[in-house]
Each structure stands twice: as C-alpha cells, then as structure tokens.
Amino acid sequence: MRHIIPLFLFAAVFISCKKDIKTGDNYSFYHWSTTYHPTEKTDQLIKDGGTYKEYVRFFDLVVDQRANSVFPIATIQFDEELQIIAQEIIPVVYIRNEVFLHKDAGRKNLNKLAKNTAEKIKRIQNKHLTGKVAVKQIQIDCDWTDRTKTNFFNFLRILKKEMPGYVISSTLRLHQVKFKERTGVPPVDRVVLMVYNVGDLGDVEEVNSIISNEVTAQYLEQLEDYPLPYDVALPLFEWGVLYRDGKLKGLIRDLTPSLMESAFAKAGKENSYKATSDSYINGIFIYKGDDLRVETVNKEKLQELSSLIKKASGSNADYETIFYHINSPLTLKFSSDELSSFAQ
Predict the structure, then answer these.
(1) Does one domain contain both 156 and 285?
(2) Judging by beta carbons within 10 Å of its beta carbon (0-12, 13-18, 19+), is residue 225 exposed, middle or buried?
C-alpha cells in the first residue's frame, strides 16, 4: 500500500486544481499504441471527455513458440518529456487466450505468472507514472473461453492478492453476458463490456465485423441483471479485411485514400474492393485479385448502438463509456458533442 497512498493524495490535490472538468455525459479513451506520446489533439480529446481518465495498454502476454513459454511483448514506451494531461491512468494488460492453455498458466506455474505480471505493471508505474498521475485500477483484457476459464479466473484471483488496494477489472464479451451461467462471472471488482468485433472476420460475406447492432441486440436482454458493475467500450476505429481465395489473410490498418487508389479498385458491394496489382501495405503482402472489405463506424450506427446499451442497462444504470481508441484517425472525425451524445 505504500506506493498507492501518495498517488491517492496526489490525485486529490491535482483534481481539486482542475476547474474545467466537464459534467454530464463524460467519456474516456483506450490508448493502444506502444508509444505514449500525447499530442495537442489527443490532449484535447482527454479534456473534452471530462473524466481525465485513460486506459493505457502496458503490454501483451503471448506464448513464445520458440522458447515454449509465456512472454511479454509490445511494452509501452513513455515520452518522458511531455506532460500527462490525464489525471488517472488505468494500465491494461492484453493476454491472448492461448496463454491459459500453456503449461506456464497451469496449476503449478499460475502463481508465478500472476506475480510476474503484477511486478511488471508496478515497474512501469513506478518508473513513469508515480508522482505524475493516479493509478487506482488494473484491467486485464482476455477473450477467455470454456477451456481457459478456470486458469484465467484463478489468475485474476492471484493477481488481486498481488495488487492489494487496486481495483481489478476485466473485459467482457456479449456472449459472456447472455450466457453467464455457462461462461462464468470473472472474480473481479468490475468489468468492461466490449460491444464491437461482433461479426465473423473469417466470413468473406460478412458486411461489417466491427459493428452490427442487429447482432448486438440479441445479447443484451440480461445486461441489466449482470452481477458486477460494468462500463461499456464503444468502437472508434476502422480497418481493411483482406481475403485471398475466400480465406482471411489479415487486417490492414491506417488505410489512406491514396493507398486505396494505388492498390485497389471498387468491386461489387459498397465496401468491397479488388486488388489491381501486387503490393505491400502496412506490413501485409497484397496479391492481384485479393479481396478487401473496408470496415468503419459512422455516427448513425454508434448512436443506435449507444441507445441499445442505455435501454438494456435500465433507468438506474451508472456506467462509464470508453472509446476504443484515442490513437485511431477515425476518432478525430467526431466532434466532442457527438462523442458526448454516445456516452452514458
């Protein structure tokens, strides 16, 4: 607890000095880049959001196939020269589901895995954030399944013991709300419901895998009765989904109009394109004849999704809206008033 008390005191003083904290429909952001380098634009997004909170991915845990062990990758790098506008940062650790099928997450090794995770979070916090910003909550992002549920839940229990004084949260998918009796309820203080990536990426006939309000509506009937406090994450990103011979080959991010014009031509459906030549775009090899589906999120779909969540949550709902993510160029296409209208 020694490292937490000063942060709480610091946060209380720091917050009391802020005169421009917004009231009403506030919102926060995920930060998913591996470099924490705030800009004037991202600082303004944090200010406009009103919560002055930012959910920052600290690192991922994956299975290193060569070493046959669980290993952290994509560790966040902080720009030490810049001031942090956020008043609270929530470290997020993304853990691939395969980790909890590995021997390093088995009964004998789970304590070590949780302890190492806690220690790495604390090292990053102590080096870059202590004395600058409050850290009260730790979030674990993992799409657990029936096969990994036991190990994942035990990991969360151990992590909570390793990090006393912190709120421990985890992400939650729509099917884990509707079928909570089968999937289980994670042993955490609160959850964040991710209401995006609801479609089938592997299906070349899919219309938009990021957002489908028709699909989402089928899973919200029991949301109001979920036994843990929850927040809601809404999508603010876009990508290109690449197929070759009808099979998924990868995701292309940061597609610009010039890149699209240089490598693809319009084909068939509204958001479908065909590669006109061999090329290499943002780390992905493109072959002539490949199919591309461009998926994005617009104001109308987000407004409809927000309304679905609000209705399903009931009149006494008190959840935070978190947009994924602040590093997306799409985020800058929405005004603060529009983002506020999507929030709880």
Answers:
(1) no
(2) exposed
